[in-house]
Specification:
Radius of gyration: 28 Å
CATH class of the largest domain: Alpha Beta
Pfam families: Ribosomal_L10 (PF00466)
Keywords: Ribonucleoprotein, Ribosomal protein, RNA-binding, rRNA-binding
Function: Forms part of the ribosomal stalk, playing a central role in the interaction of the ribosome with GTP-bound translation factors.
Number of domains: 2
CATH superfamily of the largest domain: Ribosomal protein L10, N-terminal RNA-binding domain
Strand content: 15-25%
Number of strands: 5
InterPro entries: Ribosomal_uL10, Ribosomal_uL10-like_sf, Ribosomal_uL10_bac, Ribosomal_uL10_bac_type, Ribosomal_uL10_CS_bac
Family: Belongs to the universal ribosomal protein uL10 family.
Helix content: 55-70%
Structural class: alpha+beta
Length: 174
């Protein structure tokens, strides 16, 4: 009777891995149900935070083609944040919650097939959001276009000032 349940759980976890942009593995030992609910709310609608069994997670990761979840990361009580949206926002949510609740430990993760260490997840959390980075890029492009326009207008403006100066000098000499 337990086999179909375990097979369904493995299939569900494997689907989460396939549908996610990234996954962050955490240890939640000592957190209350209310704190876990608060964490789920902090992560937002695009991130699913699920408590998982380590052995089933190993099997599901293998089925989904996810590599990098090692034996050390899958020890103790584990939960995975399956990130379907912006990984930076989810990493910030996890980092901020871990600062407020030191019992949450970030053990590692996977993003786009690459294994992430806790330090790399912290660096990811330090990045600005996608919208801010796009706005900065647009601002830089606009500034460079304005500089180019000013550069192209400079010789013409200089020629006009030179002609004005010559005509002023000629009228002063006359």
């Amino acid at each position: 009777m337990a086999r179909p349940d375990k097979a369904a759980a493995v299939a569900e976890i494997a689907d989460h891995f396939r549908d996610s942009n990234a996954a962050v593995l955490t240890e939640y030992r000592g957190l209350t149900v209310a704190q876990l609910k608060e964490l789920r709310r902090a992560l937002g609608a695009t991130t699913d935070y699920a408590v998982v069994k380590n052995t089933l997670t190993k099997v599901a990761a293998r089925e989904a083609g996810v590599t990098g979840l090692d034996e050390a990361a899958l020890k103790g009580p584990s939960a995975i944040a399956f990130i379907k949206g912006d990984p930076v926002e989810a990493a910030k949510g996890l980092r901020d919650f871990a600062k407020a609740n030191p019992l949450l430990v970030i053990k590692g993760g996977v993003m786009e097939g690459k294994t992430l260490t806790p330090a790399e997840i912290a660096k990811l959390a330090d990045l600005e959001s996608r919208e801010v980075l796009l706005a900065k890029a647009a601002g830089a492009m606009k500034a460079s276009l304005a500089n180019a326009a000013a550069l192209f207008q400079a010789p013409l403006a200089k020629a006009v000032r030179t002609v004005d100066a010559l005509s002023a000098k000629k009228s002063a000499d006359a």
